[in-house]
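dumping the sequnces here before i forget
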Amino acid sequence: MMVKDPQQLFVNMALDAWNIQIDRTNKLFNSLSDDQLAQEVAPGRNSGIYLLGHLTAVHDALFPLLGLGEKLYPQLEEVFIKHPDKSGLEKPATNELRRCWNDVNEKLQKRFNNFSIEEWFQRHTAISEADFEKEPHRNRLNVLLNRTSHLANHLGQLIFLKK
Amino acid sequence: MMVKDPQQLFVNMALDAWNIQIDRTNKLFNSLSDDQLAQEVAPGRNSGIYLLGHLTAVHDALFPLLGLGEKLYPQLEEVFIKHPDKSGLEKPATNELRRCWNDVNEKLQKRFNNFSIEEWFQRHTAISEADFEKEPHRNRLNVLLNRTSHLANHLGQLIFLKK
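..and the predicted 3d for all of it:
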């Protein structure tokens, strides 16, 4: 059986895989109280709030990495990427973090939906044109696949906050 | 910049995403003693041994699902998919499970490397030809993307066995 427009198909498959993990994470966050999010996902491990901030900061970094402009919340990087949970740095309020998480993912989704197939296969901004000639898999779509796994890793942990 | 052979490129990208999670999981399992694997990943949650058996059984099921033949270890399904960790059912010895895990993934990898691009975009065996006409994303490569997320979910949990 021949495949119809396999490039569009693959972009859709990768977006579906991303959206499945995003939707599951949204449902989980929405089902957890602020008190539950403040708990560690396992003894001595990251808190739900830290992982919420970490995922938001990592997804926010997709804007510059994919050539979509500046980060929306650059201040999150210091607390949630450069430092661990128990750094002593002050964290934003949980309801503010929830708002940032939704805002980042909603704006990403709009941009993703507007990418042409060709744009998905263009290089991301962390690789030079010369290197991309040799390593054409280092494109925007590949970043999406890797961030899907990253989200899935942490979603598996966040589930432990449900009693 | 034009992409060279985009179909081969995204098959490679999807295989890379799978292999990254497999390699990280292998390294983790190899670094954990049998005693560590016997622990729960978090209080009241699945043990490392159960997740080892569960992932092995889910990956073993890819052989029939992708049209690659029968399962290698069909007996794992009852204990590790149909029943939860504390079912009281007897589990195989941990060293036997470790062997099955490696065997399943190594044999899958050989088969994956031999798939042509066209074969990756063929339907999996859980969808009829008629439905596949309407839903062409339900192909073998999409199964691989979904199982990559599944593995990533559980890998995020298994990491907690490291002290």
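Chain A has a mean pLDDT of 95.
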